[in-house]
Amino acid sequence: RPLTFEEFEHRVNQAIYVSATPGPYELKKSSGLVVEQVIRPTGLVDPVIEVRGARNQVDDLLGVIRKRVEKGERVLVTTLTKRMAEDLTEYYRDLGVRVRYLHSDIRTLERVEIIRDLRKGDFDVLVGINLLREGLDIPEVSLVAILDADKEGFLRSQTSLIQTCGRAARNINGTVVMYADVVTKSLDAAVKETNRRRQMQLDFNKKNNITPETIKKSIHDVLSSIYEADYYTVPVVSEDAESY
Prior knowledge:
GO terms for molecular function: ATP binding; ATP hydrolysis activity; DNA binding. Residues 57-223 form the Helicase C-terminal domain. This protein is an alpha/beta fold. Helix content is 36%, strand content 12%. The protein is built from eight helices and six strands.
């Protein structure tokens, strides 16, 4: 049988944790021995973060989206629920925005196609939930909007907010707009950490005369997409149980 977590911990004397956003467990276990890799080879820096009031977030965001679309850039929008993602998509679509939504009810292959079409420019805005938090490496995205950023919980924790902000770090014009009426502990920590990293990156670029450039990444056919590989189904083990 697989080891329990406690058994695993007992057997491991030394370990190296590798994470862009280490959690409390890793930080505690490492006893403060953390080596940061904040500087990117591309010279790109963490995005600028704006915090705006959430009262008129939908209509305010519409204006921000239109400005980005005029520049030929893409936008990611995160909501808290599937219903909100669908309703927001319908509302913006009725106003002429080329927008689609992404959530767990959508088939794997269709998700791959949606991401590819966003990169190709077939539409401009992608609305989603936690699916936007990890694994979406889209250089064309220059704006990430986080609705209801002050609603504490899994989707709006410090780690989740930092990871979501990172979706805008592939573009030289990367910006994050967080909509919140209250600055929560998680929101405040995420903004401060992102700003800290950004300043380190700016200082390094200035010192070494580095000019950041947006990542250039080819758009592969959907069947060979790296995103499809993320959802690869591992075959069932065929050996007899007696072999174990």
